[in-house]
């Protein structure tokens, strides 16, 4: 199957992280997010080990918590030696409540509010990754009011089109994120930042995109960033201590997606960067990578219960489930691919072309089109959507006043609740 943590047991049910998914669905109800803690730890270790091996001690990994954020996750990635990326006071607060050391947190986002900035500084955030000059000015002023010096990085756009989905391209010049190197804005913002009080510029950041399989893109990105670092050293006398190359390594959602060897990618990247810094006559900065998807995506599946099978002869077959765009908006947002199987009988013949439809009142509420399932899917049958650990729970909403599903985790074949299912009372909690 798509990931090695999936299997089939003697009852013919789908297993995930060694447990029977039909039993889990019955025990906790559906929709249900199920996460494999061992897999998350494994994915973290691949990065940490590779960074150490190829870049040495002066390197680090940050977990991009927008991929999936709840307290237990910060505990896990922290234990694995990761720092974290946060993008809101909500993520800062969650990390804080999980006991995550905030000096290892990097605050991203293209528009941090004054409240976000003040809250993060008050709680000892390590770094802000600043998007634009107004933001650096705001951080400088708030840091001055508080009598602190705040460490920052600047987000630059190296101008690379990673040939991935348009909606998740962020490293191009016309992106809403960061300051472009090509237009001279990156240099300008560096100069201005160096002149600000209560700000310590520590280096630069870029994030080229998401779901990237081609190591060449990172290599090219690193080259542009290192050339920029050499330029500001020569022209402004500024030495960047940190270069954060962002996240974005791809994962396998469907069989057609390639396997990606993270270790090998990092080896190639390090090799190239070592040669490049030597040529440019600069020191290697501390290198960070900040993966999100590739840490959690294949560590998660979502379990649903099938409702109606609606056959429209000559047109389409719809299998509807008890969740949908409220718990996984990604197909509706940008047509993301997923693999879908019957958890009740993953080995049954998949002889029906169909669409997996959610229960929300939107015709665009689909989880996947043009998939194959058994022709006799029955009401009550359990359906699994695979590789949903990233950008599902974190993007979920209460549309149609649906409660968010529980997130359960499995560690060494023991299951436990990481996030409780929202109740009807939770739904009206803030209503006056
Ligand atoms: C989204 C994002 C990441 C993580 O990207 P993945 O594709 O999930 O690895 C890392 N850094 C920044 C700044 C991001 O916006």
Report on the structure:
The protein has 432 residues and is an alpha/beta fold. It has 2 domains: 6-36 and 298-427, Lyase, Ornithine Decarboxylase, Chain A, domain 1, CATH 2.40.37; 108-291, TIM Barrel. Helices cover 31% and strands 25% of the residues. The protein has helices spanning 21-28, 37-55, 71-79, 89-97, 114-122, 133-146, 185-194, 215-236, 262-280, 293-296, 330-334, 424-427; strands at 6-8, 14-16, 19-20, 32-36, 59-64, 83-86, 105-107, 127-130, 150-157, 179-180, 199-205, 242-244, 286-289, 300-312, 316-321, 340-342, 352-357, 366-373, 382-386, 406-411, 414-419. The strands form 3 sheets. Strands 4, 14, 15, 16, 17, 18, 19, 20 and 21 form a 9-stranded mixed beta sheet that branches. A hairpin with a 2-residue loop joins strand 20 and strand 21. The longest helix is centred in the middle third of the chain and has 22 residues, at 215-236. The protein is globular, with a radius of gyration of 23 Å. Bound molecules: pyridoxal-5'-phosphate. Pyridoxal-5'-phosphate is lined by residues 64, 66-67, 85, 108, 207, 210, 246-248, 290-294, 390.
């Amino acid at each position: 199957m798509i990931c090695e943590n999936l299997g089939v047991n003697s009852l013919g049910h789908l297993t995930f992280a060694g447990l029977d998914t039909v039993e889990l669905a019955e025990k906790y109800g559906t929709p249900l997010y199920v996460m494999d803690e061992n897999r998350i730890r494994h994915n973290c270790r691949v990065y940490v080990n590779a960074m150490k091996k190829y870049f040495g001690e002066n390197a680090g990994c940050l977990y991009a918590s927008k991929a999936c954020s709840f307290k237990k996750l910060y505990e896990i990635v922290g234990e694995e030696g990761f720092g974290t990326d946060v993008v809101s006071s909500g993520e800062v607060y969650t990390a804080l409540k999980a006991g995550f050391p905030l000096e290892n947190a990097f605050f991203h986002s293209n528009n941090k509010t004054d409240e976000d900035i003040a809250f993060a500084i008050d709680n000892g955030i390590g770094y802000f990754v600043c998007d634009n000059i107004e933001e650096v000015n705001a951080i400088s002023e708030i840091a001055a009011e508080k009598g602190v010096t705040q460490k920052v990085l600047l987000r630059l756009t190296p101008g690379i089109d990673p040939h991935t989905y348009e909606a998740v391209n962020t490293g191009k010049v016309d992106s809403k994120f960061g300051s472009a190197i090509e237009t001279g804005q990156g240099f300008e913002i560096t100069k201005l930042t160096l002149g600000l009080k209560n700000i310590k510029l520590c280096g630069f950041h870029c994030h080229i995109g998401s779901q990237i399989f081609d190591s060449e893109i990172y290599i090219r990105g690193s080259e542009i960033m290192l050339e920029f670092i050499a330029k500001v050293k020569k022209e402004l006398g500024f030495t960047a201590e940190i270069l954060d190359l962002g996240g974005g390594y791809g994962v396998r959602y469907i069989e057609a997606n390639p396997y990606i060897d993270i270790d090998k990618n990092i080896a190639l990247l390090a090799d190239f960067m070592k040669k490049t810094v030597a040529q440019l006559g600069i020191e290697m900065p501390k290198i960070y990578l900040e993966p999100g998807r590739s840490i959690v995506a294949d560590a998660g599946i979502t379990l649903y219960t099938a409702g109606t099978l609606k056959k429209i002869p000559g047109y389409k077959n719809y299998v509807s489930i008890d969740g949908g765009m409220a718990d996984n908006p990604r197909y509706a947002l940008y047509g993301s691919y997923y693999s879908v199987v019957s958890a009740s009988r993953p080995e049954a013949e998949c002889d029906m072309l169909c669409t997996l439809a959610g229960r929300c009142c939107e015709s665009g509420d689909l989880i996947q089109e043009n998939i194959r399932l058994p022709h006799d899917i029955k009401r009550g049958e359990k359906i699994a959507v695979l590789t949903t650990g990233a950008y599902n729970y974190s993007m979920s909403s209460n549309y149609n006043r649906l409660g968010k599903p529980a997130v359960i985790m499995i560690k060494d074949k023991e299951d436990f609740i990481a996030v409780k299912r929202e109740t009807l009372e939770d739904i009206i909690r803030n209503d006056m």
